[in-house]
Amino acid sequence: MANYLFSRCHDSDLDRMNLENILSIFTPLKMKHTLSKRLLAYILLCSTALAIIITLVQLTWDYRQDVGKIEASINQIESSFLQPMAASLWNLDEEQIQIQIEGIMKLSDMQYVRVHEVLGSTEVPLIEQGTLKDKFDISRKFNLVYQEEIVGTLFVAASLDEVYNHLIAKSVLILVSQTIKTMLVSICILLIIYYMVIRHINKIAFYTRNIKLNTHNKNLILDGRKSESHGDELDELVYLLNKMQKRIVAELTDKKIAIEALQQERDFSATVINSSSTVICCLDADLKITTINPAAVILTGYSQEELYKKEWLDIFVLDDKKEIMRAKFEHNEAIHGIEINMNDQMGSVNTLLWTFSAFYEGMNIKYLIGFGHDITPQKQVELEVKKLNDQLEDKVNTRTAALTESNKQITETLEQLKRTQLTLVESEKMASLGSLVAGVAHEINTPIGISVTAASFLQEEIDTLTIKMRENSLTRSYVEKLIERISESGRLLNNSLNRAANLVSSFKQVAVDQSSEACYSFKLADNLNQVITSLKHKLKQVPGEVHVSCPEDLSIYSFPGSFAQIYSNLLLNSIIHGFENWQGKCDIYIDITQVGSDLQIDYRDTGKGIGADIAERIFDPFVTSKRGSGGSGLGTHIVYNIVKQLLKGDIEYLAGEKGTHFRIKIPYQTSALS
Fold first, then answer.
1. With left for phi above 0 and alpha for psi between -120 and 50, is residue 372 left, alpha or beta?
2. Residue 431 CB partners (closer than 8 Å, separation 6+)
3. Would you tell me which of 176, 263, 368, 513 could form a disulfide with 561, CB atoms 3.0–4.6 Å apart?
4. Count of CB atoms within 10 A of residue 633's CB?
């Protein structure tokens, strides 16, 4: 029964609310200072301004159209009436002139027409029709020419009174229609705005005004909308309002839970403080004890009542340290982990490790919380440990002396090994240079031998020529063949000597660079080509080619001899280790490029590669696959040292590829660093 009465009351409330909503549709029309009134005023203002602008534009357009028609009529007079009227005036046919004037007056808005007859230099009025005024709106005067002689003049004038009357009537009509339309549109827009926005805002305001922050609140639902809808700004506002309400209720609930937890935490903290073995006390600004835990009672022998309002310095600090500690407190110095001795009631000395935390009220200290941890047992242990350390010190000194002597011997041995290693490295460098000398000597031998042979042949030909000249037995055919033989020998001699000179120049540059640490700017392509030329006798031993990819204008400021040493060692390694007893391709690829701020050198060959047993130690000294067969194991080690130490770069061996692949990265610079 109660539920039935509640539902009936609820239905009646709904009916009343629906009736109020229906009546509230017309509330925007009431003259109150509401949002509806302001919206109506703004809409009317904008609509009126727009209507006036449209009316002015329309009237201006009509005015120009009407004036254009009048001017067109006057232009029609010039094209249609001047010639006939001039002929009629020449023939003194006034009746015909009158008919023509009447025809002109029938044109649109024509007000006055007058014809003058020209007699010598005088104009005599002949015929006029219409209303004469002191000033006309539009007028024009035409000469009446007959057979190239001016026989009279025609004056026509038009009035704009009809145009103005027409425009005034039209403007009134436009303004009235625009006003009525503006009012109707404004009211409709206002009703739509109220129905779509304002009534929902009113409901949101009413709901917000009567909201109660509890978990039983119902969500706000706008009329004709779903509670979870997010269609427009109003739906978003309602969603956020409901969400905010839930969040506030949740925060209040959490706050209540936090207060309860805080109470539990306070009880827990009190229990921990009272049961802690650390002395915990609270001091006021005068360093007097306001609260203290039972641990202090056990340590000092005083009761809590006896300790209350006692100065902390009198209880926990010996007399010789009181002034020092008082000064620290007065200067607000940080007190953290300070060891302080004290006497208990029995006269025993205890050591406490004190730490203080200050709580301020403005710029002044309100109170201090002190934590004193009894470290008396630890101090006793420290004394015992110190005695043991004193006993062990002599033993340590004795053993240290023995270790020092051993380290000295080890250091001397290490220095000797380093000197031996440097000697071997220098020997390897000189051996490489010796190999270059032998190879270049072999290469130079061929062009020098050809040059000697050509020179001997030339000498024989010159001797023969001398004999024939003495005997006067020279013939033309002999001289021509002699010139041909001498020219061929000269070309052969020149080519051979140039080849030998190039070999010597390349070897000289490589040898000088390898034997010195000269640093200057040089072209990388020329440097590499000089090394390849110097090692050509070695490269001929394998059936392959050296493929070089390097920009011709790529230069670097560095040590050219070190670069030549790198190329030489890598090329010789490929020839000696990579291509020996190898039936596959024997090609070498050297790519030199600039990558960002680095110079990258990619060296790879298509040989047998490096065995897995030495690949990981390829840059270590004395690592070689030809141990006992003439291999020193220092080739890649020298390259590694040059790249890492001298050139400040990086080198890596790329395993897992066919053949051997080294990648070198060196900082790129084109001039000396200032």
1. beta
2. 632
3. 513
4. 19
